[in-house]
Amino acid sequence: MENNLNQEIIEHLMHPRNYGPLQTPTGVGVGHSEKTGEFVIFYINTKDTTLQEVGYATNGCQDTVVLGSMFTEMIKGQTIAYAQSAAQKLRDKVAMGPLKQQACANMVLTAFEAALIHEQQRKEGSTEELHAIEIGMECEVEE
After folding, report:
1. In Å, how far are 17, 23, 95 from 73, measured between CA atoms?
2. 97-118 pLDDT per residue, tens
């Protein structure tokens, strides 16, 4: 099992899924750290309550790339409610791991939350290009 997990992580690192912007996102969110300048941009395109397309970009570390790739694969084509539940489960799971992984996951998941907020704001008439949320953790943490 451990070998399979390592292979999956390597695969997501070497060939990240859903990396890059969407042509016509319905929501764009950013999770960022003022302290380090690290960020994740998360793009969503929903129809009704389904995430038709998702994408992300980051200037973060390889853990951030892997977590972004794995998370977008988990939620692509799923309902927003499912994605929010998956995000909470991922937060709970990485909360038991190293601080660095917690910080990287936090940046990805915060960007996702910001994209959902942005989409809702657009529905309410906002013309902002994105919604940004500063995170309290950085990937460059000392263990």
Report:
1. 7, 18, 21
2. 888 888 889 999 999 999 999 9
**Distance (Å, rounded) from C-alpha 88 to C-alpha 91?**
5
**Which amino acid belongs to residue 90?**
L
Are the CB atoms for 134 and 33 separated by under 8 Å?
A: yes
Q: Can you read off the two tokens belonging to residue 107?
A: 């940046």
- By DSSP bridging, strand 50-58 and strand 27-32 are unpaired
Q: Give this prediction's pTM.
A: 0.91
Do 108 and 32 form a contact (C-beta atoms < 8 A)?
no
